[in-house]
Protein: ABC transmembrane type-1 domain-containing protein
Amino acid sequence: MDFVSLLIGWLSDAAHWAGSDGVPVRVLEHLEYTVISLLIAVVIGFPLGALVGHTGRGGLLLVGAANGLRALPTLGVLTIVVLLAGIGVVPAIAGLVLLAVPPVMAGTYAGIRAVEPIVVDAARGVGMREWKVLASVEVPNAMPLIFGGVRSAALQVVATATVAAYVGLGGLGRYVFDGLAIRDYAQVASGALVVAVLAVVVDLVFIGLQRLVVSPGLAPAKSGKASA
Structure:
């Protein structure tokens, strides 16, 4: 029996879709880790990116910090946190948050800095306070890049949340790690395939949300249209 047949056989087995170890339960666990990590990353990364983008101070430091965090290996961070805090949900979430903060922070910073200075100056000219300029002018105009950063972070976290199984948690990583332990490569491949499908679904959801949240006037113009 070839590998594709084994993969189809594993996915079509009803036993793998029921119970506490079934695919639906593992998907929900996977999404839980993703949502928690992404929310924490937004709480950390958005204010930092917005503040630095608005003031223009510390931009090089922020970009350097973002690149440094991106260079950290998630599994290595996870191992260190496990040694410090013990096995549990904290190490997994910590590793995923470190992965998600850079794109959120960088997207917010880039979006704020990309707002036309004349628009910001006009807001200040009518007497807006700095916090009002940021909240009412810069952030709305920066939404395409801000949302792009959050979307990028979400996809990275979905793809990497399998590491939660490394510290004994659930999620789709259970199929990968458990399958490797018993050399059930059909299970490993099935888990990886479900993660890939989930990432595509999450991406489509974010595309839909972006169309709802971002003003059509801020969306990039479609190429191929000649000017009148």
